[in-house]
Each structure stands twice: as C-alpha cells, then as structure tokens.
Amino acid sequence: xxxxxxxxxxxxxxxxxxxxxxxxxxxxxxxxxxxxxxxxxxxxxxxxxxxxxxxxxxxxxxxxxxxxxxxxxxxxxxxxxxxxxxxxxxxxxxxxxxxxxxxxxxxxxxxxxxxxxxxxxxxxxxxxxxxxxxxxxxxxxxxxxxxxxxxxxxxxxxxxxxxxxxxxxxxxxxxxxxxxxxxxxxxxxxxxxxxxxxxxxxxxxxxxxxxxxxxxxxxxxxxxx
Length: 225
Hints:
The chain has helices at 2-10, 12-39, 43-77, 83-86, 104-109; strands spanning 130-134, 140-141, 144-151, 156-165, 172-177, 181-190, 197-207, 216-222. It is an alpha+beta fold. The chain folds into 2 domains: 2-80; 83-87 and 104-222, Immunoglobulin-like. The strands form 2 sheets. It has a 5-stranded mixed sheet. A 3-stranded antiparallel sheet has the order 1-3-6, with no helix packed on it. The longest helix is centred in the first third of the chain and has 35 residues, at 43-77. The protein is rod-shaped and about 90 Å long.
C-alpha cells in the first residue's frame, strides 16, 4: 500500500499528462461521433454513430474520475496520513551520497550524555525554511504544547511533526498539514499520555513531488502533568 501511495504522489505530473492526452483523444472521438450523427442517413449508420458517442462520453467520465481521484490523493489525503503509510526509506547510493558512521541525531544526542557540558542543540534545521522555534532544544514540557516555527520551501507538498523516545527510531506522527507556515503556529501536541522522559521532536517537510527534505530535530524532555 505504501509503495502504491508513493507512486501516485511521485509521478503525479506524468499521470496528469497521460490523463490530459486521454482527454484530448476522448473529446476528438466525441466530436467525430457528433459529426457522424449529423451526416447519417440510414438507421444503421445513426445507431453506430450513437454507439461511438456513448463510448466517447464514457471515456470522458472515466478520465474525469481518475483525475479527481489523483487530485484528492495527492493534495488532500496523503498530507494527513502517518508518515509510515506514505514514505519509504530512501535507498542510499554509495557512489553519489556521502556516508558517515555517526548520524546527525547521534551527534546532538551526545551533547545530552552525563558529564557533558555542551548545551542541547537542534540538528538539520534551515532558518527561514524548516525550523522549530518553540519548544527549544532541551526544554521541559508537559500537557498541551503549542509548536511554532517555519515550514516554507519552494513547491511545498506538506509538513508533519513527529516524536520518538530518545535513543530509538520509533517515530510517531503527531499532525500533518499542507499549508505554508512562516514563523507561526505549526500545531499542538498533547503530551499528557506520554511517560516522563527524554524525547526527540522533529519537523519534516516534503515537496509536491514527494521528496522529503532533511528533518529539523531537537531534544526535549516530557514530564507528567
């Protein structure tokens, strides 16, 4: 299911192009059928032209349905689905992608280890494009929390914010939306059901081609209300 959803989001422009070509051919067939009907003299010819017209109209209805389904899927349905339902783990090409033994999440988690004097910091954030400004790295939060920041990239598809217990990769989507946010409210997060402890909070922005940009990740601590 995930691969099917990703296919329709990634290749949306190609699908629209194919549907546009089908629309052109169906309209042309309808015009020829109408012309054939006007020129028909015998009953058999008129019956055949009506059949061609019906086929053309059926093709137009099918194309309209497919275009509407693709539009709803790409713009309205996919942004509100959990990340695991849509996005798959990208394949790394070792010939073109730099590799590192220590990921960015691990690097900033090292700042939280006992005995470290460094302050907690965020990772992967891009000021003016992908940024969480509240809460801040290392903040202690509880109950209902309002998240503020920026999700503003060229040709944005949608953004989502997620959390994971520190030291794991078990990301859970809190909320997703497809509007641009510039230094404003991203949404809210009810932490009252969580166990007190250290967590990671990240903001992920995806463009309208389904390409996920590097996430803005920051460490926070949740305490029971």
